[in-house]
Amino acid sequence: MFLLEKVQSGKTGQVFGIISSSADEGFDIFILLTTDNVRLQEQTFKRALSTLDTFCIISENDELRFAQNNMRKPVLIILKKNYKVLERWRNNLSSSGFLSSGRPLFIIDDEGDAASLNTKINNQEQSTINLHIQEIKKMSTSSIYLQVTATAQALLLQTSLSGWKPQFVYYFRPGKNYLGGNFFYSDPQSYVIKLIEEDELDNLKSDEDYITQGLSKALLTFLVTSAHIFLSKISNVCNFLIHPSVRISDHNIAANKIGEFLNQLVIADNENCLKDELKEIWLELQKTQPDLYDFDKSFDFINQNLTAQKIKIITMNSDSPSNTEHEIGINVIIGGNSLGRGVTFNSLQTIYYSRKAKIPQADTFWQHCRMFGYDRIPALMRIFISPLLHKLFSNLNKSNNALIEHIMINGLDNLNIVTPEGVNPTRKNILEKDSLIITVGGVNYFPNYPINKSIKGIDTILNDFLDDNYSECQLDTITEILSLMNSEQPEEWNSQGFKACVKMLAETHKTEKGIIIIRKDRKISKGTGTLLSESDRKLGDRFKDRLTLTLYKITGEKKLGWDDIPLWVPNIKFPEGFVFYRTE
After folding, report:
1. Backbone angles phi, psi at 341, to 5 degrees
2. Helix H or strand E segment including 331
3. Is residue 97 part of a domain?
4. Which range marks the domain in which residue 28 is found?
């Protein structure tokens, strides 16, 4: 089973509801797996303790409590996906005898696309964590394994034979006040987006003492936002997230630069300059938050907190302690991978994102959207990001919307994962490469050995289209034509797969029409290749952002290698900039 949700949309509460309901139906042993992140495991454990008061909540070092409970209460065991932890609890469960007595086991794999999947699939081996989870699943005579994530790419691209592809999916709708991709990455561009220079990351990582203009504005925006939240008594916390890169050294450089910048702000002879800069920021924020707290009082609040050094700079990475406090106060949080995958930040209002990757992964980058959630003031949200990264996230949002729409209407049938060109859907080592089918936009696909299921049927569909230039065509009509075409060699032309791509294109692009080019009475030899004349190739290339289907009706003469029967030969090209992934 698979529960699909949006980043930070209330997944944990939904999971606790499923656990409670399942306990009412007779399940009494639950395992909740979190990523191998100490903060996240502790965060989930504390939430379970405060929510599920009729359960015996077990952390990964609570073997004694597990034994003493002796199944008097339903048990929820919360474990990191760490091979030592999983191995220890596999042994604990085995020695307890609770599962061998016939009790069903319910496993909830939070972030089921991370760590759980077999990273050695292409070596015909099994990775350790994947093996341990599989062994725990098999310990009971019956079990339910529920995968939960907001980034489904890795799970949906598993093969059926792998044993890790979900059998069905349920989409959990976010609540009314949720702020997600459609709010932040809208078209036209949202007011929350503040574009920074493309090279800001390089400047941030340099040895220069000064900070970049974009980061400076982001920090001042955060200070004004914090003043409004604290003076208006909205909350006792306001957080600012900075995601420069995965490198700990970069986190430290950024922390030092920001600390020095905040110290310079309290220097007396900079006061007038600071006040002018803050007033400019205040006026910009007031455009979207008309009742923004009085500027002079806000300035005094900022000055007091800067002077008293009450603005905390927190680095979150593998070198920092797990008990770092960011749930109260004014906090500038800097990190990399620790800022993703389920860790939540209350009252997160300002984000500075400059992380780059040679080949981005769609699921990894989307998990970095920690600004998504509920306890935010929409009018004071601001994201400082480069134009290229903003374009990437905007395209990922379109792809995610298309995926969710497809799942809600069609479930898992004929599913393609669509990503922007140059972006992988997920990490390669968990996808079985021999079963992965990739369709790239801007490339001409055609069968060398075409088969027409009904030449008359194709003729009838095409009667209404011109054959001297090109025509616009409903995507549904293109799908109908593809249904009547095949190949003697299915591996070179998969009509069913192309039809699925067309459907996902319609859901991603929100378009109903493509381009159709028809040519008749062509005398072309079998096995010629794309068949396209130079002029028709150039014509098709004009429509870079449209689905283009070119159809040649050839005479089919025997001397040219055919069967003396006229037939249609298709050539399909999807819009540039998109890549479609699927597994058979």
Report:
1. 55, 60
2. strand 329-335
3. yes
4. 2-171
Distance from chain centroid for Cα 167: 21
pLDDT at 472: 93
Query: What token pair was written down for 77?
Result: 């065991």
269 pLDDT more than 50: no
pTM of the model: 0.87
DSSP-assigned beta bridge partners for residue 146: 108
Same domain membership, residue 145 and residue 195: no
Task: Give the separation between CA 347 and CA 149, rounded to whole angstroms.
Answer: 22
| Tens digit of each residue's pLDDT (9 = 90 or more) over 98-114 | 988 888 999 999 999 98
Half-sphere CA count of 54, side-chain side, radius 13 A: 8
Query: 3-class SS at 351?
Result: strand
What CA–CA distance (Å, rounded) separates 496 from 447?
14
Reported as a single tens digit per residue, the pLDDT across 319-370 is 766 556 788 999 999 988 777 676 788 999 999 998 888 888 999 899 899 9
Dihedral angle over CA of 290, 292, 294, 298, nearest 10:
-160
CA angle 504, 509, 513 (to 5 degrees): 90
The CATH number given to whatever domain includes residue 141 is 3.40.50.300
Between 338 and 571, the higher pLDDT residue: 571
Residue 8 φ/ψ region, left for φ over 0, alpha for ψ in the -120 to 50 degree band, beta for the rest: left
Q: Among the three residues 385, 403, 420, which one is the final residue of a domain in this structure?
A: 385
pLDDT tens for residues 56-84?
A: 999 999 999 999 999 999 999 999 999 99
**In what order do the strands lie in the sheet containing 105-110?**
56-58, 75-80, 29-34, 105-110, 143-149, 2-4, 169-171
